[in-house]
Structure formats: C-alpha cells, structure tokens
C-alpha cells in the first residue's frame, strides 16, 4: 500500500462513511468539499434557543423559529432559517424544467442538514439481482451505526428487514396519536398480514436524548438529528484526516499511476485513488465533464406520493399540545406481489404544524371554515409512500455548454397504476386500524422530490459501458470509486441514505 493520501470528495453521508472506513484501514484522507456552513447569525439564534427550556417556549417563540421555513421558495427546503444546505435549481441546471424537484448541496454535511432522518436497511429480495447481497452490506450497516444514532425498537419490521438487527436500540417516544395507531395496528396485525402489510415504529437517526420539542421540520435547535457534519467534526480530530472546504471539483482524469482532480479555483490535486460522493447531481456533472463527448447519464427515481388519512378515534389530548416529535412516527411496508414485486415503503406522520396551515390555505376561503379545518388537522395522519425505481421515472442528464446540467424526463407509463394499487392497499389495510384514507386527495410528488434518486452508473458483476464494478469504479476507470447513490444498481423503496452509507463504507473498506 502506498502512503499517499486518498481523496474523498464530499462530506455528506456517503463521504463521511467512506472516510471512516479508510481511516480505520490506516489510510490518510484528504476531503474536498463544498463546505458551506450555517451563517453565524443563524447559528447564534439556534444556540440561544437551545439554551432555553422548551417548556418555556410560547407560541411566539415557536412561530418565530418556523417562519423562515414557511417563507421558503417553492421547491426549496430551509432549516434553521437558512438556505446554506440546498442549492437552488438554477445553480445546477442551465434551464431548470418546472417538474424537476431534485436539488444538489454544497454544504458541509450535504443534504443531511435537511433530511427527515428515516432509516431502514434494504431487503435481500429487493436487491436479489445486485452484484452484492445483504450479507455484504450487513457488517457495514453495523459499522455505520457506530457513528449514526439509530432510534427504534425490535418489532415485525426487523423480521421483514433483517439486514440491520434492532436489538438493544431505544426508540424516541412516538407522539400520542402514533402510540394509539400503533396499538390499533398491532391489534389488527393478523388481518394486515393477510394484505401483506407490516407495521412498526419508525427508525430515525436521532439521539436518544431528543427533547420532544416538536420543531424537527424547521431544524433541530438541539442538534439531535444526526447530520454528516457531526461525523465530519470527529473526523477532523484525526491527524491523518485533512479537510478542504470550498474545494469544488469540476473534472478529473486518470493516468497510469494517479487520478488528477481539477478544482474550480484552477488548481489540481493528484492521488492514487479518489472516492466521489458529491451527491448524484454533482457527481453526474463531474463525470460528464470528465469524459470525452459528454453523453448522457440517467438517474433513476423512487417515486413517492402522499396519502392523507383521517383517524376515527378521538384524541385524549389535542395532538398539538404536550411534548412530541414531528419526524416519521411509524413505518408501514407493503409486501404484496400483486401490488409490486418489491417492497412498497410508507412513512406515517401524525400532527405537525403544516397540516392546519395547508388545509386552510387550500380549502379555507369560506368564512368560519378555519376552526373546522384546524379540528380536522388534529385527526389527520399522512402516509408518504415510496415505490421501487423499477416503477418510477428516469431523469436523463447531459452537460450544458456553460458546464451546468440539462435534464429531460423519461416518464414511466406504469407509475400511476402501481401508485394507485399501493395507495388502495394502504387504504384498505389502514381501514382495519381506524383510519379513513382520503384517496381522492392523494397526490404524487414531482420527479426527484423524494430525494431517493441515483443508480445512474449501476454496479454490476460484469459492467458494460455506463456501469460500474462492485467497488463503484465506472467502466474504463480504475482509480475513481463512486460512493454515493450513483453506483447503486437500483433504488429500492426503503429509505436510501443508510444503504448509501453502508455501501460507501463497504467500498472504503474493500477498495484495493
Ligand atoms: C428534505 C429532505 C429529506 C430527506 N429525508 C430523508 C430520509 O428521511 N431518509 C433518507 O434516507 N434520506 C433522506 N433524504 C435524502 C438524503 O439527504 C440523501 O440521500 C443524502 O444526503 C445523500 O448523501 P450524499 O453524501 O450522497 O450526498 P449529499 O448529502 O448531497 O452530499 C454531497 C456532498 O458533496 C459536496 N459537494 C457537492 N459538489 C461538490 C463538488 N463539485 N466538489 C466538492 N464537493 C462537492 C457537498 O458539499 C456535500 O458535502 C432527504 C433529503 C432531503 C433534501
Ligand atoms: S423533537 Fe425534533 S427538534 Fe425537538 S429535540 Fe427532538 S429531534 Fe430535535
């Protein structure tokens, strides 16, 4: 082994996972990164809020924390009152089409500054045609969980998805609505099983000392939702690790003994090998800019949809009072070949502050409807369903003359029918647990808006042009490993990031 440092591009979930694995092997690592951070003013505001007791926060304090998120432009996700973690579409695309909802990040920690923190492993049956199996990923799920907190508990979902055992894990307390629903789902377990439906408590990448302050969708004031920047801070304490924020990679070339990276500031950096985890859009841009003739790279999406449901039972206490979190509360998996050959994954959200606002904005034009809609919002539970990429659209990317990307949509004619079958099955099953699904109000997300997207340079046992080998090396290259979702062979419905991290850790561990 040479003692020249390896280069990791990106400090998102993929980048920090690969860096952890490389350091564990005794390698030295240079991390090149966009490196944007929360502005000092916003960080001061966060720290000031975190220094106070949530029990003392009145409505005005909460509203003040939430206001910037409500005011964020369509398609953008804002946390901590800042846009540092998400690039606007026009920064990445030359002529952003209206349907395009995926965004890149140039932040330290990438999109994990914004994520919903839902974590599940993949299921062997969903990756049966991959060149790696769940047994290849399992030790890396465990290694990642040494630095990624996983809250949750051993339940039916662990039986369905045994790739990451949950023994010894502790859940964060579900909201009272979710507790009541889980009891009903458990009671109806046998009839749900007959529909191929399995339910359990959600698993979130949240520290166990969650304060249940309910501000999760606006940026956790206590920084208890894991973000890759937390692990980056640990990495930076290692003398074998060096970090270069603002080092934007534009392209690369390989020679017989090195890979040379070109940076936006005009400098270059060479190393024996590089691990590219810039997020699927930026990774595509770097790949397209580095190959003669450019060509096209095709992303595969995991289509998602929202299904609102009304609970039949009365709440003992209003769900917007007391302490609770607003991350996904429950997971429901549909394992039914007549719906899909793959698992359909659903995340259930109980009351959050968006519900009444959205209902009033959409249906509250008539006088006196606001109190009615507010009461309805307190009985609303929303399922977010995700499909496997086989049933979802594709997004073709090519390089625009100015170095940004252009995107075109390759719509999947089957998506609507599969979504309809999945929501129908969900509605039927949840009916057994006291929920009335409002299927007429179900709506699919725009392409890319799930942020469960990738499989653009899929790993294969014998990769052809446009593919990569089982260590994420694109065909024709030997020194570049793709460690983000670009190299996944497909996008199963269960959450993406935990598996991206496990795969990046696997590649960092095994790369020759
Ligand atoms: C609102 C939202 C909610 C989500 N919820 C969930 C969820 O609940 N569960 C789940 O599994 N996933 C979720 N995701 C998806 C999740 O955030 C991503 O899967 C994950 O962040 C991808 O990690 P990554 O490291 O591959 O890329 P990113 O997080 O995009 O990180 C990319 C990194 O590369 C750096 N970079 C970018 N371009 C360059 C360049 N040219 N040169 C150098 N460095 C560069 C960036 O600074 C950054 O550090 C969500 C995403 C969003 C936006
Ligand atoms: S409820 Fe959400 S915002 Fe509040 S401490 Fe827990 S994770 Fe953070």
Helical segment count: 14
- Specify the CATH class: Alpha Beta
Helix content: 25-40%
User: pLDDT below 50 for ≥5 consecutive residues: which ranges?
Assistant: none
Sheet with the most strands, sense and barrel status: 7 strands, antiparallel
Q: At the third CATH level, what is the topology name?
A: FAD/NAD(P)-binding domain
Q: What is the domain total for the residues?
A: 1
Q: In CATH terms, what is the architecture?
A: 3-Layer(bba) Sandwich
Quaternary structure state of the chains depicted: single chain
Mean pLDDT: 96
- Shape call: globular
Strand segment count: 19
Q: What is the rounded distance between the termini? A: 9 Å
Radius of gyration: 22 Å
Ligands, deduplicated: flavin-adenine dinucleotide, iron/sulfur cluster
Q: Tell me the strand percentage band.
A: 15-25%
Give me the secondary-structure category.
Answer: alpha+beta
CATH superfamily: FAD/NAD(P)-binding domain
How does this structure look, described?
- The chain is an alpha+beta fold and 512 residues long.
- The chain has a single domain (6-510), classed as FAD/NAD(P)-binding domain (3-Layer(bba) Sandwich), CATH 3.50.50.
- It has 14 helices and 19 strands.
- Strands 3, 10, 11, 12, 13, 16 and 17 form a seven-stranded antiparallel β-sheet that branches. Strands 4-2-1-8-19 form a five-stranded parallel β-sheet, covered by helices on one side. Strands 15-14-9-18 form a four-stranded antiparallel β-sheet.
- A hairpin with a 5-residue loop joins strand 14 and strand 15 (405-410).
- Helix 1 (13-24) runs parallel beside helix 9, helix 1 (13-24) runs parallel beside helix 14 (497-510) and helix 11 (353-363) packs antiparallel against helix 12.
- The protein is globular.
- The protein starts with 5 loop residues before the first strand and ends with a helix.
- 51% of the residues are buried.
- The mean pLDDT is 96.
- It binds flavin-adenine dinucleotide and iron/sulfur cluster (SF4).
- The site of flavin-adenine dinucleotide (FAD) has 35 residues, from helix 1, strand 2 and helix 14.
């Amino acid at each position: 082994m040479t003692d020249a440092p390896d280069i990791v591009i990106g400090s998102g979930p993929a980048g920090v996972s690969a860096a952890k694995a490389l350091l564990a092997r005794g390698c030295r690592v240079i991390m090149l990164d966009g490196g944007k951070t929360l502005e000092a003013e916003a960080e001061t505001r966060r720290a000031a809020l975190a220094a106070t007791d949530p029990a003392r926060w009145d409505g005005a304090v909460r509203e003040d924390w939430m206001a910037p998120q409500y005011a964020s432009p369509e398609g953008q996700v804002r946390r901590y009152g800042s846009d540092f973690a998400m690039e606007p579409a026009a920064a990445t695309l030359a002529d952003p089409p209206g349907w395009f909802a995926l965004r890149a990040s140039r932040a330290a920690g990438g999109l994990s500054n914004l994520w919903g923190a839902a974590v599940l492993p993949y299921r062997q049956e969903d990756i049966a045609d991959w060149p790696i199996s769940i047994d290849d990923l399992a030790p890396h799920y465990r290694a990642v969980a040494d630095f990624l907190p996983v809250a949750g508990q051993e339940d039916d979902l662990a039986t369905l998805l045994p790739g990451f055992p949950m023994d010894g894990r502790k859940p964060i307390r579900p909201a009272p609505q979710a507790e009541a629903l889980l009891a009903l789902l458990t009671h109806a377990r046998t009839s749900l099983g007959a529909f191929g439906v399995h339910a359990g408590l959600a698993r979130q990448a949240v520290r166990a000392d969650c304060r249940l302050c309910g501000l999760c969708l606006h940026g956790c004031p206590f920084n208890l939702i894991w973000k890759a920047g937390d692990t980056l801070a640990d990495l930076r304490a290692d003398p074998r690790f060096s970090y270069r924020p603002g080092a934007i990679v534009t392209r690369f070339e390989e020679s017989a003994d090195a890979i040379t990276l070109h940076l936006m500031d005009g400098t270059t950096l060479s190393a024996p090998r590089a691990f590219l985890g810039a997020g699927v859009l930026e990774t595509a841009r770097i790949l397209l800019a580095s190959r003669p003739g450019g060509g096209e790279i095709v992303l595969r999406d995991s289509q998602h949809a929202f299904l609102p449901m009304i609970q039949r039972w009365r709440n003992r206490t209003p769900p917007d009072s007391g302490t609770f979190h607003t991350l996904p509360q429950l997971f429901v998996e549909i394992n039914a070949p007549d719906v899909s050959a793959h698992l359909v994954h659903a995340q259930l959200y109980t009351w959050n502050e968006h519900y009444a606002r959205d209902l009033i904005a959409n249906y509250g034009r008539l006088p006196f409807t606001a109190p009615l809609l507010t009461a309805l919002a307190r009985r609303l539970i929303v399922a977010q369903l995700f499909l496997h990429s086989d049933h979802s659209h594709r997004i073709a990317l090519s390089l625009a003359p100015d170095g940004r990307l252009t995107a075109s949509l390759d719509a999947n004619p089957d998506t609507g029918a599969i979504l309809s079958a999945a929501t129908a099955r969900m509605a039927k099953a949840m009916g057994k647990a006291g929920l009335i699904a409002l299927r007429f109000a179900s709506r699919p997300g725009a392409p890319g808006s799930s942020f469960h997207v990738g499989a653009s340079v899929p790993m294969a046992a014998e990769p052809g042009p446009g593919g990569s080998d089982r260590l994420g090396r694109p065909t024709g290259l030997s020194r570049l490993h793709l460690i983000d979702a670009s190299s996944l062979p497909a996008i199963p419905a269960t959450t993406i990031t935990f598996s991206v991290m496990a795969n990046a850790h696997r590649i960092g561990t095994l790369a020759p």
